[in-house]
Each structure stands twice: as C-alpha cells, then as structure tokens.
Amino acid sequence: MDLLNSPEAALGSLAACAAKATILLTVAWMVTMALRNQSAALRHRVWAAGILSSLALPILTMVLPAWRSSALVAATGVWSSHKAGPMATFENLPGMIVNASAASPLSSRWADIVVAIWMFGFIVVALKLSAGLARLAWVSRQATPQLHEGWLRCVAELCNSYRISRDVRVLQRRNPVAMPLTWGVLRPVVLLPGKAEQWPASRVRMVLSHELSHVARHDWMLQIAAELARGFYWFHPLAWMAARSLRQESERACDDSVLNCGIEPSEYASQLLDLARTLENPGGKWSTALAIARPSYLERRFMAMLNPSVDRRHLSRRAGMLSIVAALCLLLPLAALRLPGQNLSAKFSGTIHDPSGTGVRNATVILTDHKSNTAVMTASDADGNFSFKALPAGEYEMKVVKRGFETYRAPELVLEPGRDLSQNITLDVAAVMDEVDVVPEGTVKPLPESPNGGKPSRLRLGGDVQASKIVHKVMPVYPASAKTAGVQGTVILHAVIGMDGRPLSLRVMNTDIDPELARAAIEAVSQWRYRPTLLNGEPIEIDTTIMVNFSLQP
Q: Cα separation of 60 and 46, whole Å?
C-alpha cells in the first residue's frame, strides 16, 4: 500500500484487509469456543494462527496472484451500471461500466482524512510498543546475572526438560519488588526481582518453570506479533480481543506446564497469590513482556489450576501441524481474493492533443480490462485533460474516441498499485471518405447542397477543424468495353488531399478490380478539387478514401 501516493487505493486496501482479518479472527474465536474443554495450549495455538494470519494478510495480498470472485464482480457490475446511467448503453463495452470521472474532490479529501487517522493510531501504538521494548532493553542492561549455583542447576534442568537449546540469561534487577518477566527470542531473558535470592526453593523452581515454559513455547515472539497486529488493526475490536486472549491462554498453558512438573495446584495458587500481593504490577509499560502474576488474569487462572478435570496436555506435533495447514487453507484464498475497491492503482491522468498541440475536449477515454471483462471511461475537459482515480491495478487496453479524429488505441497499459501514471496523447485528424455511383449513361449528377446552405462544415474538435469539402467533381465515364462485357464493381482509391485541394498519390486499393474501371475512376478523380482541411486556420494534408461504384443497373 502506498499511503502517501494514493489515499483512495490505501483506503480500499485497508478496508479489504480489515474485512478479511474479521473473517480470520472470527473463525479463531469460534474455534476456541468449540475447544473450551480442550487444553489451553491448543487454544493458544488457534489464537496465534489467527493473529499471524491477519498480520500476514497485507504482505500476501501483494505477492499472491489476484483472484476475483465472479459473484462479487457481478454484484459490483449491477451497482456500477445503475450508477453509470446513460453511459451503460455505450456501444461495444463489456458488462461492467464505471464512471471514473465521478470521484469528487470531497471523496478524495475524505480518503485523505481516514488514512491520516489510521496512520496516527498506528504510530501511537507503534511508539508505545517501541517504548516498552526500549524499557525492557534498558532494564536488562542494568540487571546483574544470577550466578547462584542452585539457580543455575535448576535452569539447566528445566531447559533440558523443556528441550530449550537457546542460551537463556537469568538476570536479577535492582528493584526488590519487581515482577518476574520474560522476553526475547534468540537470547531469551528472565528478569527476577532483587529479593529473589531470599525465596524458598519451591518458589524458585515454580517461577523458573513458568518463565522457561514461555521460552520453550516462543510465547514472547507470538505476543509481539499480536501487538503488531493490534497496531495495524488498532481500530478493530477483534484485534484487541485476540491479543488479550492470546496472553491469557499463554499464561494458562504455562500454568499447566508448571503443574505437569509435579507442583501441587494449591501450593502453586498460593505462591502466585503471594507474588501478586507483594510484587509490583507490571502495568501498561510492560505490555511487551510476559509477567507471571498479572492481577487481571489471576482469578481465571486460579479456577483453572484448581479444577482437576481441566485438560493440561501439551500441544502435540500433529495438532500443531494441523493448525498450520488449516490456517493456510483459509489465509491463502482470502489473501488472493480481490474485493471491490481493493488493489487500486493511483491516479491515471493525461492530456489529449490534436496535431497542432491544442487540447481536445469531450474526447471519450475508455480503459478495458479483458481479464475481468470490465471497462471504465471518462471524458476530457476543455483543455483536453482527463483523469481516472483509484482504478483496480492490472493490464488495460486504452481507446480514445472523438468525432473527426482517428481512434487512438494502446493495447498494453499497465496500472500498478499505488503508482501514479500520466500519458499525453495526440489524435490524428480522421481521413475523408467519399463515394460516387456511376451508371452506364455517364451523366454528371449535381452536387447535393450541404445542410448549412453550401458553407463548409465546421467542427469544434481540439482547436478549430474545418473539414474538407469537394468543390469540383468530375463524374467517371463508364468504359464502353466494360459495359459491353457486362463488367461492374467498385473501385477503391486512396489519395492524399493536398494543401491546395488537389488529390495526390492516387492509388487503387483493390487490385483485383477490372483495369478499365480502375482507369476510368482515376482519370475522373484526378480532376476533383477540394477545399482543403483547415486546422486552426492552416491547411493540412489529409488521407481520403474514394469509392467509385460502377453498376449496370440504373
């Protein structure tokens, strides 16, 4: 997402990611509700899968091939055709037509405001997370290593029991009443209060068992991922609920690990209660660390640890793999799915000129995406400028149509997400086409009067374009030999009307025509005289096609 370059595109991508994250987190919540009688470790894995999937959505959306639902496209097409009104009847356009010029400056400002609000919230949460990490790093630097031989033996024994191969540092803080904390990934750190040396051996083993269980389960890394997801989706209640539930299930799963080590539930609950009563509550500034006795979670943890029927099993490898496969089966299609308004490009604009460099107004610009069978169109303003705002990224065929000019086509126009694109277009004046019927009598037919009383027609195109007009026409004479032989047909001539009004470079286009008919057509048309085409008052050369129809029927 390019948040600064295209607010409309960023807003569309953000809304699509939020909608998909809603699906992922709702599914995670429903699954954990269904597993409420299963182990906390399994519920923790489900919440972790949902949070990691929602965090990976923006990245996978950019790298996966786009998949558009035909049902969504059809639904959008009905709405767009209704909004497009009279343009929906434009000839030769695919089914879905969107008026790209309908995006008002007000809607663009609203997109700017919404994106700015999102960025503000994201920055606030990111700064809070950064401050917490900086605080943890500072406190760890101030702490001293715990070198008590009994502690070191206990740590080594528990690391072997939990199969922890990483180097775990156990540090002792200066604050004697600080709550035990755990943080870090590659070199995990367990922070203990200053008076931890006075604890009995049972409390030491209980605290270390709980904290090292966090290390073995990689809980701190998952909690940081939850904080990042909460920062990205700070406006989404489910993101906050998921982060809170992940932390709760993490503490309960570690409690189960402690109890599985042989510690009595009543003794463990008593020790936790004493720690919560005598030590400092870590509070919001320690949101990035895992504390053993947060008062807000204790009541539910006590109920669980004192209930003998609670499932305290560790997460099996099979269950872990199944959770990953299930998450990917839901995440990958969602990430590839392009919702209406998602994956928008930045503004595509340009200017349309005539050969003199004057802007062409009211030219119709049509962009067609053949993959999705959709098209968008807009019209140029008085200066020839046009603009499309927030189009779906992709490959388009561009066509510019304006009466009096040749149709302009660009078969490969690539719009990338969040990228502005500008293109200047020069339209060629359309070639003239005349047609004359020749009958055997060879009579010269009078020229028809023009609708405006014989005056040359004047079309307001880019600048002033005065269309060419025949002022002297010599009718071809039907060749006697062709008439006797019963030969008839149409001679197609190509010529260039010079700046003096004379036909130049006469050439027969259909070489299979009878040579006598071709000769008669060239002899007559070479004597025609035109009023030359004027562009902004200056004569220009222009192509013309002349069809001479020789027919034996009167």
A: 20
432-550 has CATH 3.30.2420.10 classification? yes
The packing angle between helices 219-232 and 40-63, to 10°, is 50
Residue 487 vs residues 47, 515, 523: alpha-carbon distances, Å:
86, 11, 18
Whether the per-residue pLDDT at 447 is higher than 80: the answer is: no
Q: CA–CA separation, 98 vs 365, rounded Å?
A: 12
Does residue 530 carry a pLDDT above 60? Answer: yes
- Residue 318 φ/ψ, nearest 5 degrees: -65, -45
Helix-then-strand count for the chain, H and E: 13, 23
Going along 323-466, which residue ranges are E strands?
348-353, 364-369, 374-379, 385-388, 394-401, 408-415, 421-426, 432-438, 458-460, 464-466
Name residues whose C-beta falls within 8 Å of residue 435's C-beta, 6 or more positions apart in sequence: 546, 547, 548, 549
Where are the domains positioned within the chain? 7-67+104-336, 348-426, 432-550
Question: Rounded to two decimals, what is the model's pTM?
Answer: 0.62
- Report the topology of domain 348-426: Immunoglobulin-like (2.60.40)
Provide the pLDDT confidence category of residue 460 given band limits of 50, 70 and 90.
Answer: very low
